[in-house]
Design a protein that fits this description.
This protein has 136 residues and is of the alpha+beta class. It is built from 5 helices and 5 strands, in the order E-H-E-E-H-E-E-H-H-H.
């Protein structure tokens, strides 16, 4: 089991409704792959944590690299994991409403590897200038 966090930049091909379609399709595909995680979209950029078996994650990353709706994929963390942190989230969108960001922060704060992910997430939030995410 691994956890991989990456960032990417949305291209001009990402339409208004595409974000919802991405999450919807990810939920379906990730169930088949045994992948869980969350997605943050802010300031025309993505931060995503994916977790699952290494073979499944590598296959997913190859698929993501071919997706023309984003570019400049940068893996910021690639860590072994004892278990999924977000086992019920086939792909949770973390955004302006709801308590998903608070749940993410609480879960990641529990141990050192989670705190590494949390530092990258906070850096992403600061870089994208997303005050709506900071206060949640």
């Amino acid at each position: 089991m691994r956890q991989i966090a990456y960032t990417s930049v949305a291209t001009d091909e990402l339409g208004q409704d595409d974000l919802f379609r991405i999450v919807e399709k990810s939920v379906s595909n990730n169930m088949d792959r045994g992948v869980t995680g969350f997605l943050v979209y802010a300031g025309n950029q993505f931060f995503q944590l994916i977790e699952g078996e290494e073979v499944a994650l590598r296959g997913l990353l190859r698929t993501l690299e071919k997706d023309t709706r984003h570019c400049d994929i940068q893996i910021v963390l690639d860590l072994p994991a004892m278990a999924a942190r977000f086992p019920r989230w086939r792909m949770q969108r973390v955004g302006r409403t709801g308590d998903a960001l608070a749940q993410v922060r609480a879960e990641l704060a529990k141990d050192q590897s989670g705190q590494q992910v949390l530092r990258h997430l906070h850096g992403f939030i600061e870089r994208t200038g997303s005050p709506e995410l900071v206060g949640q």
